[in-house]
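Lab meeting prep.
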Amino acid sequence: MSLQNATGTITVSIDAKIATIEFGHPASNSFPAQLLQELTKTIDDLGHNSEVTVLVLKSQGTAAFCAGASFDELLAVTNESEGKSFFSGFAHLINAMRKCSKLIIGRVQGKAVGGGVGIAAACDYVLASQEASIKLSELAIGIGPFVIEPAVSRKIGKTALAELTLTAQEWKPAAWAHEKGLYAKTFESIEKLDKAVLELAHHIASYNPEALSAMKKVLWEGTDHWDNLLLERASISGKLVLSEATKLALKRN
């Protein structure tokens, strides 16, 4: 199955109980609102598909994994309602990922920025290439990683989050992300990464689906309040994106 339009592409393939979801966008696999909505719906649908046991989430190409939010759409925001609506896209996606009954393996082949880091953090298990450095640049453009913070903090802790957030211009290497717990393993080539992803997915697909679903709930215990929390965070970002400082910073980027 493939969903393609001017705002990007979502492709799904199912084989041996493994559903592989690939998203793509010409601007470094960034996310406009419509693509966020399509990915959220895709994960919801696959979570209810009895022919699927495990999901693999990846992006197109061999360069960036995900550049986060679409700067063009951020610049187009004219009021708080529009701002909250845009950032709610990431809130809905992260909530869909945590509530999905299927375990999600993240395959991160390249750099991840902002919302891309949040998407990686919302996966249950992430394998990455050694080129998959990360950055939370939100403070540098006048906002903050408020919506994705709960997912990122859950993986790496508040201390590492502070280091990542406050050095908003600095890339952290994949080794740092591995050390802090965002990545489970890193690999020296994309070929080795893809082999490891496939092997892990086949192993998980062979397990009892009921046990996997129960394990998923255990892994995400204590996050039921995120339905409201992430939308509240979207309101914060939605207000900040209207500031003159943010508009100027976005235009410079």
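Slide two material, second protein:
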Amino acid sequence: MTTSQMSSATGRIRPARMGDVRAIHSLLTTFADRGLMLPRSISSLYDHLRDFVVYEEENAVFGICALHICWDNLAEIRSLAVAEERQGCGIGALLVESCLDEARSLEIDTVFVLTYQAAFFRKFGFKDCDKQDLPHKIWSDCIHCPKFPDCDEDALIRTGLGMGS
């Protein structure tokens, strides 16, 4: 991330709160309606609220991301979204780094993503992998997806987080 991108992100990253659920839902729905990510119900957001961090400026949410623990030593970064008017300011990078830091603090060594933005995640050391290498994800979440089994997202994985990377 360049210095100019860092300086244009003037808000803060914090854990999501109950009052953020509608804003999180609205942001996710904006991109889900375009087929860029999967929709999430409000009920699901309440169920998984502790997974989310938000990027906030002046009491408004402009970015979101979640770290979902899947299994022993395995987590997924999911639901990364930044409001269109704030894209290109480094907010997405800050959100991903926040999730990676949380994974490290939880001593989770391996994090993966399913995404349409593979190049973005490669900047953080994620490597392409086969979806079949993610069996816990496939059977816990993907089987309920309307695109299953014909998923068109790219799978990427990052290992070695617990080793100071």
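Talking points for slide two:
Residues 41 and 58 are 26 Å apart (CA to CA).
The radius of gyration is 15 Å.
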